[in-house]
Amino acid sequence: MAKENTQEKLDDVQQPNRRGFVRGAACTISGIAIFVPVAASVPVVLDPVGRKREPGGSSFTRLCKVSDLTTGIPEKFSILEDKTDKWSRYKDAPIGSVYVLKQSEDDPPKLTVFSTICTHLGCSVNYRGHVPDPDFYCPCHNSRFELKTGKPMNNTPPRALDVLNIDSEKLASQGEVWVEYKRFKTNSRDQEDA
């Protein structure tokens, strides 16, 4: 009988130790299961913080050859650019559009590149060649702009359409139209970078 009591006491002593071991092992495994994904996500979350920004500044975008243009009729071109935000990269994302107007047949020809953004509130301007006096037209507030100069033909827009810079060297040497695309503040009399 004393032997049985001793055996029961031993079983009682060993049981809590086994339970403690199983409980400790379960906690350890759970901790690892939580820690590993959290530790793996830290570099992903912190990557944008440490990433260096690409240097800003303007760059020229090729639009077309001069021979592709018809004198007196503006051609619309989309401006595409590789965009990068903190987590994503987009190849050839549309960032805007322009009208290129070939105004003369000179060598090199006189070209004007207008932004398609209305200077009033930023709506998109359309070329209307079917009206008696062709113009650029903004449907948002019935604004009209002269075809050759981009000057407003009514009092709604605060200034003329924004004219963008052309790379004159490439125009003269290669016969290609390269434009420096920029956005400007709307509803302002002065042309200020946005």
Q: Looking at CATH, which topology of the largest domain would you report?
A: Rieske Iron-sulfur Protein
What is the CATH class of the largest domain? Answer: Mainly Beta
Number of structural units classed as domains: 2
Q: Structural class of the helices, strands and pairings? A: alpha+beta
The largest sheet has its strands arranged as 1-9-8-4-3-2
Beta strands, count = 9
Proportion in helices: 25-40%
Measured between the Cα atoms of the first and last residue, the distance is: 95 Å
User: Which term fits the overall shape?
Assistant: elongated
Task: Write structural notes for this entry.
The chain is α+β, with helices and mostly antiparallel strands and 194 residues long. The chain folds into two domains: 1-51; 60-180, Rieske [2Fe-2S] iron-sulphur domain (Rieske Iron-sulfur Protein, 3-layer Sandwich), CATH 2.102.10.10. Helix content is 29%, strand content 28%. The strands form two sheets. A six-stranded antiparallel beta sheet has the order 1-9-8-4-3-2. The protein is elongated. The model has no long low-confidence stretch (mean pLDDT 83).
Question: Which keywords apply here?
Answer:
six-stranded antiparallel β-sheet; 2 helices; 194 residues; 9 strands; Rieske Iron-sulfur Protein; three-stranded antiparallel β-sheet; 28% strand; elongated; alpha+beta; 2 domains
